[in-house]
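hey can u check if this looks right to u? its 790 residues, i copy pasted from the old doc so theres a chance i mangled smth
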Amino acid sequence: MDRFPNAADVDFHSPLDLTKAAAAVLDAEGRISGWGLSAQRLLGHPAEDVLGRPASLLLATDPGPRPSSLCTAHRPRSTVLDLACRDGRTLRAAVNFSPLVSRGTAATVVVAAELEALRCWEAQLALLQGLATESSVGLTIFDTDMRVVWGNVSTDLELAGVAQYVGRPAADLFPEGEFISRHHPPDEDQIMEHVLTTGEPIMGMHYRGRAPADPVREHVWSCSYHRLVDARGEPLGLFEESLDITDRYRAQERLSLLVRAGKRIGASLDVRRTAAELADVAVPQLADEVLVDLPPAVIEGRQPPTGSAPGHSLLRMHGRTPEEFRTSPVSYPPSSPQAMSLATSRPVVDAAPPGSTGEPVPAGRRSSLFVPLLARDAVLGLATFRRSSNPDPFGPEEQTLAVELTERAAVGIDNARRYTSQHAAALVLQRSLLPQRLPEQSAVDVAYRYLPADSRVGVGGDWFDLIPLSGARVGLTVGDVVGHGVHAAATMGRLRATVRTLALLDLDPAELLTRLDGLVAQDSEPHADDGLGDEALGVTCLYAIYDPVSGRCVWASAGHPPPIVADASGSVALSALAPGPPLGLGSLPYENVELSLSNGSVVAFFTDGVVEDRRTDIDSGIDRLAHVLTWQRCPLEELCDRALSTLPPGPQADDATLLLVRTRRLGAGQVADLELPPDPAMVARARTDTERQLETWGLSDLAFTAELVVSELVTNSIRYATGPVLLRLIRDRSLLCEVSDNAHTAPHLRRARRDDEGGRGLFLVAQMSQRWGTRYTGSGKTIWAELAIP
């Protein structure tokens, strides 16, 4: 199969060439005395209609100079004329008038071609001119014996003059070069022979070598080979395209090396293996050998020494496995490049073999790069990169790459050193699993406090979270894993992530706790090897959902103290419903509690560490917290401080977590509801009302997108539901579009085929909105979409 099926349409002959152009002959008076078949094809006039008639009759407009005057000229003339075709068309043509020496019945030969075709031909010539003189792509032509015939300006610059290579074989251009692409024969003669024999082009081969114009620096080219054939299809030779991709190739190599380093270096949390991983990644792409020298304190997991002389008391590590691992002492004099690198915390290049360190100089070593191992502003040791086969010294980009690799290794070594402290690791784990900051939303104001237990007890498993939900609602959760230590912190992290995931499914609190209970029950099966079974028992959790549109708050508890509510007047109420069983027992169902909260109510979510200690019972602690909430008009931060100030002095026996929220209601002007009968004609009304409402809110810029989203959601509900459809628009931090119906089947995003008549609505909604989803209600479902407000 022809690789370029349209190649036959490419013709570099001029449209005014006599083999292609329309030709005619005029006598001295400008009458047509000769009419070729090409002229008949171009204009449509047969010879019998034009012979003997003035040529001016073929003109569609007045050209200025008459053809008769052009015929009497003594030199060739060119002009652009509008010619009349037989079918009534006007053809704009380039016309050449060439006078004959012997004037008789044939005084002038006229050659014409379509002007647009001539301009295209001239553009092709300009392209060839640019490829030959201005292109950065090197073009070289070889004959059938694979000897150099010609090269463009780019090739001439690379070869420092292509003329000296004309007639010489291709191997003479870069005698030490090599192909580094292995998907074709690596020998250039074999590649060229393959292209000449089969006519199949070979493209994108990477070639590495040193150009005669720049023999010091190694370059990489992307080379392609194509066969050249004559008009009969016989091979004339072949041409090579070459593009210098040195910088791009090296950047890709560096990126590839960094990707491998990210996957391999530091994954083991072992000092010895991290040092070996650095050597495995850097050899042989960056260096032929990598050595790592560390102080004994770092190898043993202690803090690295400070203030000692650089280069003293280091140990060189050998071996990759615990069985092979051994160390040998090394020491660098103050004047050595190694000591200079350690003292300045900067990489140092030594292009010549060092003679001052007392080390034996390996045969053939050409360049060394010394990079300090730095982590958290501490020098952990020294990495040495050595080259023997590559004559090039370490350049600036390679030094940067070596520094990045060494930084990764230093972090891995430092992490391995710090891993020996379980308590510190557990505390960092717990801190990282708790929210660093709560997300912005409009439903509630939030303040929180977390007090860890006494360090002698160990970190605990308290957690809290605020989760933005659809419809401007928020999910609020607080929980506690009984026990202390790394297992409690790890269990807390898993449960907090699971609650967040289940909350984003828009489950009601009781359903969420039921699912969480099943997951905890699976994890609580005893494991004799790791002792995690007891940690999963005694997990409590409370989850609540607050809706700022209706002021409705629904919560459910799994063994956790219920929230305390203080309304806007300051009166405090406790829940009359006892909490359900702790998670993991799977015995009793969970029940929802529904409250209607006024604007400005304060709700306190807390763990038992806030209300319980060894000296007082939990009821006394709840009374203390309820009394603090009578000051609910105070700022939430002040209320948090007041609540924690009531805790008994002394070390905390358990973590204490307090989450205070002040409810807010969305104003009537921020919510618009529209009930629609299940009639397809109502879709237009939904779009119209949406446009009006957005204009009222000053969001006309969102009208087109919002109308499209509303149209798709309403159409979907009317098509599949049987009762009325409710459209709700909410102006919050974003524009919320909700469509509710009585169907319980959730729509699914799918990829529609070309011949499908539907199935693209949700795809459009997903593309137009920031987020979208479905939540179930007691009477059906609600499909929602969230649009960013510009």
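The mean pLDDT is 82.
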